[in-house]
UniProtKB/TrEMBL annotation:
Organism: Elysia marginata
Full protein name: ABC transmembrane type-1 domain-containing protein
Top-level taxon of the source organism: Eukaryota
Keywords from the UniProt entry: Membrane, Transmembrane, Transmembrane helix
Residues passing through the membrane, by range: 13-38, 45-70, 76-102, 111-134, 140-159
């Protein structure tokens, strides 16, 4: 004979087992979901950290390249400025040398002009002295000739 409560007790046991299984499955699912969420969060955090690190590295590289370009440009500007200063210094030296050369030429020309003036004065004085001497000699000679002619005429006329 059958126990009328047998199936009822069995049903209760089955229901309790099913409840335990369902609870275990739900707990496992919750754990799996939590693990998945944690893994996703960790992956997202890792990706974000990697992206941030890459962005920082790229930014540093770009800033370094910009600094390099600016430094190169600054070096070029410094070179241009140095060349400009050298050109200006050379131009100033050339101008100073040219001015000094002109001054030297002017001094030399002054000396030459003074020497020429002195030589001309000496030549003029010498020529004047020579002319005076020649004139004096000519006058003396003419006087002597005149005296000789007068003496001869006097002698010719007086002793004739």
């Amino acid at each position: 004979m059958r126990d009328p409560y047998f199936f009822t007790g069995l049903k209760k046991i089955i229901v309790e087992i099913l409840v335990v299984v369902v609870v275990v499955v739900v707990v496992i699912l919750i754990v799996v979901v939590v693990v998945i969420v944690v893994v996703v969060v960790v992956v997202v955090v890792v990706v974000v950290v990697v992206v941030v690190v890459v962005a920082i590295v790229v930014t540093i590289v770009v800033v370094a390249e910009v600094v390099l370009v600016v430094a190169t440009s600054a070096i070029i500007v410094v070179k241009v400025v140095v060349v400009g200063v050298v050109v200006v210094v050379v131009a100033v030296v050339v101008v100073v040398v040219a001015v000094l050369a002109v001054k030297v030429v002017v001094v030399v020309l002054k000396v030459v002009v003074r020497v020429v003036v002195v030589v001309v004065v000496i030549v003029v004085v010498v020529v004047a002295v020579v002319v005076v001497v020649v004139v004096v000699v000519v006058v003396v000679v003419v006087e002597v000739v005149v005296i000789v002619v007068e003496v001869l005429l006097f002698l010719f006329l007086f002793y004739k």
